[in-house]
Every structure is written in structure tokens, then in C-alpha cells.
Amino acid sequence: LTTYSYNISNQKVDCIFDATINQLENYAPANAVVIITDHHIAALYSQQLSAYRVITFVAGESNKTQSTVDQIIQQLILMEIDREALIVGVGGGVVTDIVGFVASIYKRGLRFGFIPTTILAMVDAAIGGKNGVNVGLYKNMVGTIVQPSFILFDYTFLQTLPEAEWRNGFAEIIKHACIRDAEMFSNLQQHQLIDYIKDAKLLTDIIQKNVAIKLEIVAQDTLEKKERLFLNFGHTVGHAIENSAQLKHGYAVAIGMAFACQLSEKIIDFNPNETAKVIQLLKQYQLPTTADLDVDMIINLVQADKKRTGKEIRFVLLSAIGDASIQAIPIETIRAQLIEISS
Ligand SMILES: NC(=O)c1ccc[n+]([C@@H]2O[C@H](COP(=O)([O-])OP(=O)(O)OC[C@H]3O[C@@H](n4cnc5c(N)ncnc54)[C@H](O)[C@@H]3O)[C@@H](O)[C@H]2O)c1
């Protein structure tokens, strides 16, 4: 068992690696724990969850809504859950986003932690305290920034993770490599997804590394004024196509990263050979790099992005692999580039 504790905005966040769900006992007795999860995890892991009270909602991004939040809160009230309880979100990023939000608003906030069960949630969604829900097609339009007390990494959950979800998570790993870590980028080039699925040591190493990258960035800039913006690499266009084109989050971000590299060539002389390397790596991990784009719809959604100010949007570009930079870019420049790549 390896535990790292981080301080983010004066709150201690424990990351417990190589753990099992039983380690919850270090945080609260089983009768004080309320697990909130989706129906896939509830069905697959009923035995592991049997010691706890469990609230279940229907899996899927389309249920990351205020209505699901309200249903969960109704059940918490029915169960007479008080402020001494510990709320634990067990699942992918949809679960951690919703549960962090519920726990931060129910009775004005309860202690909560996560057991992420997808690669994407382990390396990204469970970390950093951002949580919330979508409003129609607008991604993460409502939410809070409140940190979990702990994140427990129990890799046995990954045994049931479909391969498409492994790829989904590796998109965020490739993102971390692009913005922060050229060495990890070249390590990824030397492997295939199957290596990480089969080799537990390789997997735990890369997960711990990615957790460290994300936590370090979040600790520097919890409220997303500067460094944390880098984590949005690929996400401006990615978010716009995720719900409108019904793509998995990581797949949409992969397309967004390819687009951001091409824009970086135009705006800050990012080397086209480097764009080719990023696109090649995404393909190696069986991620999409292009899609049929509805430019007007994307622009409409980009206008509502939280990073927009007036006619410009703060956009994450690459100056080199491993090195990101933020530029205010006119929305019209983004439109022109979208038209160029989709024609
Ligand atoms: N808060 C953040 O900082 C942050 C960062 C990145 C992504 N996100 C959010 O995360 C969400 C995407 O997360 P995700 O990709 O984990 O999606 P998800 O939670 O929808 O999980 C994907 C699917 O896998 C299933 N699943 C989960 N774990 C499983 C397991 N161990 N075995 C079998 N099936 C399993 C789920 O039931 C679901 O059907 C998006 O809503 C995105 O906006 C948030």
C-alpha cells in the first residue's frame, strides 16, 4: 500500500495506491458509508459493495444531469443521511463528477472520497475537485470545486473494464504527456495499449505518474487561473463534439488534441513533424483524430465555453511536445481552422 497525501487549497487529499475497497475502514465504519455508483458497477460488484448502503443511478454521460443529482438527494434524505456520513463515489468520471457535486451541496457539504473504476477517472476525473453536471449539450456548465478527502485506487475493478474504455482513458494520459512530459510521450510511443492491460507494474507506474502530474498542476492553481488551464488541451473542441456527436470523452478529446496541434502550427509555429507524432500516437492507441464536424454547432458550443471572454477564447496550444502555452484566440480563427480541416 502506498499513500501520498497532497495539500490542495488547505485540504488534505490522500491517494492510496494498490488498495482494496476494504481500506474504506480507515475513513469511516461501514455503517457510516454511503456508496453512490452507476448501475453497471452496482451489478458487477454487488458482492464487494454488500457491506455498505448503496445508491445507484443509470450509467452514461446523458445522465450527468441535475435531475440525477435531485434523485440522489431524494434518496439521501429518505435514508436520513446526516453530516457525519461519508459519501463514496465508485465508478467512472460520470460517477465521480456527480458524486463530488452531490456531496459538496447536500446539507451544504459532506465528507467524500472516490474509488475510480475507469482509467479515465483514475488519471483525471477523480483528481482535482472539479465536479458537476451538464446542461443540455453544454458540458459541465454547473458545478463546484471541492476536493475529495481520499482517492482509493483498487486496480481489480479494471478487470471488467471494456477495451474501448481503456482507450478512452489513454487519451487523457497522452494529453498529460503532450502538455507536461516528453519522456512519458516517448515511453508511450514504445508500447501498445495491450502492454498496459497485461503488465500490472507498467500500469501502476503510469497511473501513479499521471496522478502526480495532475495533482501537481491542480495544487499550483486550484481555481484555474493559469497552469490548470493547460489540462484543457484538446478540450475546447473536444467538449463541443463530445455530447453533440455522442463520443466518449477521451475520443472527443483525441480529436480536439489533433485539432489543437494543427492550430498550434498556425499560431505559434509548432513543428508539423510534432503534429504528425501526436496524431500517430493517438492512432497507435486506437483513438480517433478526425470526425465529421458540424462547424456551426461546434462554434455555438465553444461560445458558451467557460474560457471565453468576449470574442476570444483562451486556447491551449503546444509549442513543443511536453510544453503547452495559452493564447487568446479569436473564435473566428477557430471557425476558419475547423472549416479548413473539415473541407
Ligand atoms: N472532473 C474532472 O476533472 C474531469 C476530468 C476528465 C473527465 N471528466 C468527466 O468524466 C466523464 C467521463 O468519464 P468515464 O470515461 O470514466 O465515463 P463513465 O463514468 O461513463 O464510464 C464509462 C463506462 O464504463 C462503465 N464502467 C466504469 N467502470 C467500469 C469497470 N471497472 N468495469 C466495467 N465497466 C465499467 C460505466 O458504467 C460506463 O458505462 C465525462 O463526463 C467527463 O466530463 C471529468
Question: What descriptors fit this protein?
Answer:
about 350 residues, alpha/beta, 7-stranded mixed sheet, 3-stranded antiparallel sheet, 14 helices, binds nicotinamide-adenine-dinucleotide
Termini, distance in Å?
A: 52 Å
Q: Can you list the ligands bound to this structure?
A: nicotinamide-adenine-dinucleotide
Largest sheet: 7 strands, mixed
Determine the structural class based on helices, strands and strand pairing: alpha/beta
Number of strands: 12
* Inertia-based shape: globular
Task: Give the assembly state of these chains.
Answer: single chain
**Average pLDDT rating:** 95
The stretches of 5 or more residues where confidence is low (pLDDT under 50) are: none
In percent terms, what proportion of residues is strand?
Answer: 15-25%
Strand order in the sheet with the most strands: 1-2-9-6-5-3-4
The number of helical runs is 14
Task: Return Rg in Å.
Answer: 20 Å
Range of helix content: 40-55%
Taken in chain order, the helices and strands follow as EEEHHEHEHEHEEEHHHHHHHHEEEH
Describe the structure.
By secondary structure, this protein is an alpha/beta fold. The protein is 47% helix and 21% strand. It has 14 helices and twelve strands. It has helices spanning 39-44, 46-49, 66-78, 93-105, 119-125, 163-180, 182-189, 193-198, 200-220, 235-244, 249-268, 272-284, 295-303, 331-342, and strands at residues 2-8, 11-17, 33-38, 53-57, 86-91, 111-116, 130-135, 138-145, 150-152, 308-309, 312-320, 323-330. The strands form three sheets. It has a seven-stranded mixed beta sheet. A three-stranded antiparallel beta sheet has the order 10-11-12. The longest helix is centred in the middle third of the chain and has 21 residues, at 200-220. It is globular and about 55 Å long. The structure holds nicotinamide-adenine-dinucleotide. Nicotinamide-adenine-dinucleotide binds next to helix 1, helix 4, helix 5, strand 7 and helix 6.
